[in-house]
């Protein structure tokens, strides 16, 4: 009989919603499931918020004390969906208690904190995953398959972007994402790390960077705690303003260990852009192009294509492609954000069932943090910075 594993989810905001949906849906897609997630306890900062999340997300219990929850004998998996400042503390306590862990991205507020988390999970011998879900978009996994099969030859160049506009309005509140002590950095850690994860997944480790990291909106109206509602936040232009101490944008050149070169751009102030995650990869035998806003599609051009049919063409992800066995039976039926989280959940529970670490795990999350550190340092010094692995 398929085993059931009890999940304690810490944080009932945006990611709480996405993860709770994935726990409920994963066995409906991937059946027989490697193990069945049971939504046991949800934790938030107050009893009221936790109880609200319990009712909404279908957990058995609610709590406002994550320390008591992560050591409980009846908890198998700890899921960290809080802002970045408490990822390390919760993960280290959960590892010490022998729990398997999934932690939202970015793993930490920098390399030093991420290293402590990695040491803790390795010492405890638990399964660990960092929730960079975009690499689990089937079309992205298909790009990786083509690259592994040598279909575009040796990679020469990677161009990655993550462009949004929810923070372009200067009267948007000073949520936790604009505070260094909570977030660690701005666009770099929040969305630039997604691009770094994709670059690592598709090309290989980044070895050096040079970056510009401006802050355009230097003060914002103070928000009295609470969830970050992103663009949907209530605006209060008359509220007292305080300093934004993180970057709004990063524009960077990259060198990879394998000799490839590339670029990365991330901003949350790019009017008209929503979740514009793109990459274009050029190889010696072809090119691959992806745009998350059209995430059923992978655009490819192979040098071996006949002379009279050259140019980018579209492959629609479906049953013949990665994760196709569990998702929808017809290509282009529609992959959404939820599907990326369902696949992530499947890979986590498969890892727990088999004892084989998933990817990206805390070691991958740590490497990504080292790149983020290098981007921040380069933004300050305006020099090329080697990634300190
Ligand atoms: P949010 O602001 O919507 O929700 C965070 C929740 O955590 C709130 O309910 C808050 O009260 C709770 N919380 C804060 N401190 C806590 C503590 N000490 N104990 C228990 N609960 C606590 O934030 P959101 O957007 O859900 O982000 C959470 C994490 O997920 C962040 O690390 C963020 O970077 C990541 N994220 C990842 C995404 C992805 O696509 N993989 C998308 C959005 C966020
Ligand atoms: C805001 O920029 C945000 O919610 C990020 O925190 C997530 O990581 C991204 O997936 C969606 O946008």
TrEMBL record:
Pfam families: GFO_IDH_MocA (PF01408), GFO_IDH_MocA_C3 (PF22725). The keyword Oxidoreductase applies. Residues 141-288 form the GFO/IDH/MocA-like oxidoreductase domain. The keyword Oxidoreductase applies. Keywords: Oxidoreductase. GO terms for molecular function: nucleotide binding; oxidoreductase activity. Residues 5-132 form the Gfo/Idh/MocA-like oxidoreductase N-terminal domain. InterPro entries: Gfo/Idh/MocA-like_OxRdtase_N, Gfo/Idh/MocA_oxidrdct_glycsds, GFO_IDH_MocA-like_dom, NAD(P)-bd_dom_sf. This is Dehydrogenase. It comes from Limimaricola cinnabarinus.
């Amino acid at each position: 009989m398929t085993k059931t594993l009890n999940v304690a989810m810490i944080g009932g905001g945006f990611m709480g919603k996405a993860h709770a949906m994935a726990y409920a849906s994963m066995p409906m897609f991937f059946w027989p499931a490697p193990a069945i997630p049971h939504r046991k306890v949800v934790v938030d900062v107050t009893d009221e918020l936790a109880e609200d999340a319990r009712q909404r997300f279908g957990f058995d219990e609610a709590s406002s004390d994550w320390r008591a929850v992560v050591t409980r004998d009846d908890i198998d998996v700890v899921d960290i969906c809080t802002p970045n400042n408490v990822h390390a503390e919760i993960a280290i306590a959960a590892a010490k208690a022998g729990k398997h862990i999934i932690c939202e991205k970015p793993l930490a507020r920098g390399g030093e904190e991420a290293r402590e988390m990695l040491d803790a999970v390795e010492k405890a011998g638990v399964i660990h995953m960092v929730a960079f879900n975009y690499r689990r978009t089937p079309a992205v996994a298909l790009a990786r398959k083509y690259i592994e099969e040598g279909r575009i030859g040796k990679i020469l160049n990677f161009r990655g972007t993550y462009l949004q506009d929810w923070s372009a309005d200067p009267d948007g509140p000073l949520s936790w994402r604009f505070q260094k002590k909570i977030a660690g950095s701005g666009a770099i850690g929040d969305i630039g790390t997604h691009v770094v994860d994709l670059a690592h997944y598709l090309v290989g480790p980044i070895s050096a960077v040079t970056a510009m990291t401006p802050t355009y909106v230097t003060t914002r109206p103070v928000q009295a705690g609470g969830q970050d509602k992103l663009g949907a936040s209530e605006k209060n232009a008359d509220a007292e303003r305080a300093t934004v101490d993180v970057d709004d944008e990063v524009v960077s050149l990259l060198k990879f260990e394998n000799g490839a070169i590339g670029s990365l751009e991330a901003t949350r102030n790019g009017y008209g852009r929503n979740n514009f995650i793109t990459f274009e990869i050029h190889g010696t035998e072809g090119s691959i192009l992806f745009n998350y806003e059209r995430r059923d599609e992978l655009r490819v051009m192979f040098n071996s294509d006949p002379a009279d049919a050259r140019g980018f063409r579209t492959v629609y992800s479906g049953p013949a492609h990665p994760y196709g066995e569990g998702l929808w039976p017809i290509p282009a039926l529609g992959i959404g954000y939820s599907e990326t989280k369902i696949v992530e959940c499947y890979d986590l529970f498969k890892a727990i069932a088999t004892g084989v670490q998933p990817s990206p795990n805390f070691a991958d999350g740590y490497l990504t943090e080292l790149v983020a550190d290098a981007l921040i340092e380069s933004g300050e010094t305006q020099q090329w910075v080697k990634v300190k692995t």
